[in-house]
Amino acid sequence: MLQVITICSIALLIVLDQLIKLLVLKYLAPVGSFPLIGGFIQLNYAENTGAAFGFFSGFTVILSVITFCVIAVGIFLLLSKKIKFGVEYVCAVAIIAGGTGNLIDRVFRGFVIDYIEPLFIDFAIFNFADILVTCGAAVLIFWILFDTFRGRKKLEQEKNE
What is the pLDDT of residue 127? Predict the structure, then answer.
């Protein structure tokens, strides 16, 4: 049952990402940009042929292959129950969904549609899929560090007893 919920969750997030991007193409691309929260965030249509911050621009095929491999490994780990349900599991779902959303763009459009631009800081324009990948990866890293330190502390306490 968890596997069905997992696949449905990933699919729902991918569909949401692609629907947002279709709306961006239809309504934002013709006007270019639109202030969302004055001086804070604006919607700004951008076509990104690279990865985060435009790195590896023009390497769409290589980025697509790497992304596909990460997604395939992630799905295998989830569906084979190598990752138990919990923080790591939810993070993997977010990373897989976001990666797939951007992979769809790269394969079918040749670029990733970005549209969220923070104005309060000099930062890259990004999208919903990027948020999923970034938040999933950040929480996963912090969780692994927390879990590692917690495990070390527990071992130290056991040695001192």
Answer: 97
